Automatic annotation (TrEMBL), chain A:
Keywords: Hydrolase
Top-level taxon of origin: Bacteria
Hydrolase among keywords: yes
InterPro entries: AB_hydrolase_1, AB_hydrolase_fold
Matches recorded under Pfam families: Abhydrolase_1
MF annotations from Gene Ontology: hydrolase activity
Organism classification: Bacteria, Pseudomonadati, Pseudomonadota, Alphaproteobacteria, Rhodobacterales
The keyword Hydrolase appears for this protein: yes
Protein name: Alpha/beta fold hydrolase
Domain AB hydrolase-1: 32-251
Automatic annotation (TrEMBL), chain B:
One GO MF term attached to the UniProt entry: N,N-dimethylaniline monooxygenase activity
Lineage: Bacteria, Pseudomonadati, Pseudomonadota, Alphaproteobacteria, Rhodobacterales
Organism of origin: Pseudooceanicola albus
Record flagged with keyword ATP-binding: no
Domain of life of the native organism: Bacteria
InterPro entries linked to this entry: FAD-bind_Monooxygenase_sf (IPR051209), FAD/NAD-bd_sf (IPR036188), Flavin_mOase-like (IPR020946)
Name used for this protein in its record: NAD(P)-binding protein
Length: 280, 492
């Protein structure tokens, strides 16, 4: 009796690697929505909630990043994967591009490169330029990784969730959640890329109608980064969710609300608007 | 003598009070609230059975604009909710507008005068705009049980609890396993000599994260209202998350199911009893219940579970559909309410002189879940497709109140004397809703529930989407869906 969402899997080759993506939802008056996950993520890991729920509203496409063959992972590699999926899944007409965390940096860069194609842009907990605070956290992560420390996933979990959310769970529950994170060489390469992000110039050229979503209690990409994106992108509006960085888990329904409202009418709020939170 | 008010509201539960407060706050004083009982509070006045409490945390289940920093618990008991409602009515100066002991008997639309006439137990009223706020849980549902009149002991419905009846040491039967029953059963188990529970179908049950607030917390809520607001928002969005279960997304359905079945397994050791307490339909198809006390009460030595419906009564002997019989002294019917066919609808007669109940012979429906073609100048709060399986109905009520306020502004500014939902707009709205309802757990979950109208198989009670989407879509007046006749408002 489960309502199994009908979806199709696609695959596209770019720079010698295969990139898999998933498509679901009806064609209607909304622009197809393309979802780009963040560090150590996947469609299921970061969009397990947003993908099926948005697919009841409109066409949704989400891709899983693939590791590349270069010595280091570069932003351009991930942008190329997103561009390839957009080209394959939506050959004609505009898209709304959503990126989360590192995926937001990828999405912003993509929007700068494809000004006609990316009509609307949603940046969730992204950033403009890696700062000292992020480098410090990344350095601790690197040290734990080099030591092959068992604490690394607990450290990542500690950084990802807000105190408020964590306090609704028990310590064993949080430890169990940490145990589900898997390390890999690809994650290492993403973490290295995270120390070198600078899309400030590209953001100045973005023409897409943009919604920037910052997370009030984000300790990994604090909300001042989202404010910087809000300033840097010409046609941007801003809203905030009282969540940690892991907003896709913590406040998935509130995130859905903002995405749903924006994809329904991207221009409902003029550029420069700080959209207030809905007060229940 | 006929009394005239510009606006008449039926009922003084959360809907009627919320409407009255906002009318008053918007500077409108020409309204009365008709209330059949002697106090405000709606379902929280009527339901005073032992153990009555709300399944939504109190900081959310309250008016957004009247926060209460000193709720005693996360899930406060029923009498505290009713006291809050009375306090709201008094603080907002609503009491002089309420006509207690005044039961609405019939509302009739008169096209010539463009007025509603309301016949009540205390004389007639007329009004330009009629607003019903009679709720989903206003009138008890009693199943027709053969031989019920032969029962010599005490027998009553949960919403009409007889506190005179002594329960200590007696043989008590509780009929039902829904939201009221699971609150009553633990209380009965404490006092009964023998308790028999008649269960037509087993509920899914998850733990209740209840606790008392400390004095320090209450002081914090008083000193810093933003802490109440933050908590309210957290509860609301956590509730919204669970709509994914109702939407029937396997991953989230399975999460909820695992939580409920894990709860059953932890609390019920006996495999036979556990099997009989395991639901045979999809989680969320009926209301997902929350209790920490139910399973322990079901496991108690003085409790017996009859895992079949109550079938017949022969004197003091009460039979389950399985054929099993029990001799009982007291029988409590926790069998719910007339929600799918609300009794108020049989008393509201529109342009053709037909009752709403007859008009809705294939199930309730309304444009924007609030207005019905053929029934001009009427708003229904908490009517068709406004129920929620996953969040606070007070939130829905506030959205509908805001809709009505905007409508009144529009009518006043444009000098409209008569407005009516357009038939095409109403049908188009219902088609959109039914499209959304398809595949949800209510229609595809394989259960019989009070959410679905048996006559049409349509989901008529529940809003088949997020609560926040209800506010986004129905929190503002849509004049384009109405036919309007200009002219000055009639007055008696």
């Amino acid at each position: 009796m489960l309502d199994d969402l009908k979806y199709r899997d696609g695959e596209v080759s770019v720079a010698g690697v295969r990139v898999r993506y998933r498509v679901a939802g009806p064609d209607n008056d909304r622009t197809p929505l393309v979802l780009v996950h963040g560090t150590a993520g996947s469609v299921d890991g970061h969009f397990g909630y947003i993908f099926p729920m948005m697919a009841y509203r409109q066409k949704v496409i989400a891709l899983d990043w693939s590791d590349t063959e270069g010595a280091t992972l570069e932003l351009a590699d991930l942008v190329a994967q997103v561009r390839a999926v957009i080209g394959d899944a939506v050959p004609v007409g505009p898209v709304t591009l959503l990126g989360y965390s590192l995926g937001a940096c990828v999405a912003a860069q993509t929007a700068a490169e494809l000004p006609g194609k990316v009509a609307n842009l949603i940046l969730v907990a992204g950033w403009l330029k890696t700062d000292t605070h992020q480098q410090m956290r990344n350095r601790i992560w690197r040290a734990l990784r080099d030591q092959d420390s068992a604490s690394i996933t607990e450290y990542m979990t500690f950084c990802a969730f807000s105190p408020g959310f964590m306090n609704m769970k028990s310590l064993p529950e949080m430890v169990a959640a940490a145990g589900m994170l898997k390390m890999s060489g690809f994650v290492d390469r993403q973490m290295d890329l995270n120390t070198r992000i600078d899309i400030a110039e590209a953001c100045e050229t973005i023409t897409a109608k943009t919604l920037v979503i910052g997370c009030t209690f984000d300790m990994m990409v604090p909300k001042h980064h989202s404010k910087q994106l809000f300033g840097a992108i010409e046609d941007a509006r801003y809203t905030e969710i009282p969540s940690g960085h892991a907003v896709v888990h913590e406040r998935a329904a509130e995130l859905f609300h903002h995405i749903d409202m924006f994809t329904r009418a991207p221009g409902a709020h003029p550029a420069g608007t700080i959209i207030p939170a809905q007060k229940p | 003598m006929t009394l005239h008010s510009k606006i008449v509201i039926i009922g003084s539960g959360f809907a009627g009070l919320g409407m009255g407060i906002q009318l008053k706050r918007s500077g409108r004083a020409d309204f009365v609230i008709l209330e059949r009982a002697q106090d405000v509070g709606g379902t929280w006045r009527d339901n005073h059975y032992p153990g009555v409490a709300c399944d939504v945390p109190s900081h959310l289940y309250s008016f957004s604009y009247l926060p209460k920093p000193d709720w005693s618990r996360v899930f406060s008991p029923g009498p505290e909710i009713q006291a809050y409602m009375r306090q709201c009515a008094e603080d907002e100066g609503l009491m002089p507008h309420i006509r207690f002991g005044t039961e609405m008997l019939a509302c009739r639309w008169d096209e010539d005068s463009a007025l509603w006439t309301i016949e009540t137990s205390q004389g007639d009223y007329t009004c330009n705009v009629l607003i019903t706020g009679t709720g989903h849980l206003a009138d008890s549902h009693m199943p027709k049980i053969p031989g019920i009149e032969s029962f010599p002991g005490d027998l009553f419905h949960s919403a009409d609890w007889n506190h005179e009846v002594a329960l200590e040491g007696r043989r008590i039967g509780v009929v039902g396993s829904g939201a009221s029953a699971i609150q009553i059963i633990p209380e009965m188990q404490k006092v009964a000599g023998e308790l028999v529970v008649f269960q037509r179908s087993a509920p899914y049950m998850i733990p209740r994260w209840d606790r008392a607030f400390s004095e320090g917390e209450k002081r914090m809520f008083r000193r810093d209202p933003s802490t109440v607001e933050a908590m309210r928002s957290e509860i609301f969005w956590a509730g919204e998350y669970n709509f994914a279960q109702r939407r029937n997304v396997p991953r989230f359905l399975n999460e909820a199911k695992a939580m409920a079945l894990g709860n059953l397994e932890r609390n019920v050791a006996d495999p036979d009893l556990r099997a009989r307490l395991t639901p045979n339909y999809e989680v969320g198809c009926k209301r997902l219940l929350i209790s920490n006390a139910y399973y322990p009460a079901m496991c108690a030595e003085n409790t017996r579970l009859e895992a079949s419906a109550l079938a017949k009564i022969e004197g003091s002997t009460v039979y389950g559909a399985s054929g099993e019989s029990y001799d009982l002294d007291v029988l409590v019917f926790a069998t719910g309410f007339e929600a799918v066919r609300p009794p108020f609808a049989a008393r509201v007669f529109g342009r053709e002189g037909i009752s709403l109940d007859a008009h809705w012979d294939k199930g309730m429906q309304a444009y924007d879940s609030i207005a019905v073609h053929g029934y001009p100048n009427l708003f229904i709060i908490n009517g068709p497709n406004t129920g929620l399986g996953h969040n606070s109905v007070v939130y829905i009520i506030e959205a509908q109140v805001n809709y009505i306020l905007e409508a009144l502004d529009h009518l006043e500014q444009n000098q409209v004397r008569l407005f009516e939902a357009a038939a095409e707009a109403e049908d188009a709205y219902m088609d959109r809703l039914q499209g959304r309802a398809e595949g949800t757990v209510w229609l595809a979950g394989g259960c019989k529930s009070w959410y679905v109208d048996e006559r049409s198989g349509r989901l008529t009670l529940v809003w088949p989407d997020y609560a926040h989407s209800f506010r986004d879509e129905n929190g503002h007046f849509h004049p384009e869906g109405y036919e309007m006749v200009p002219g000055p408002l009639a007055a008696e």
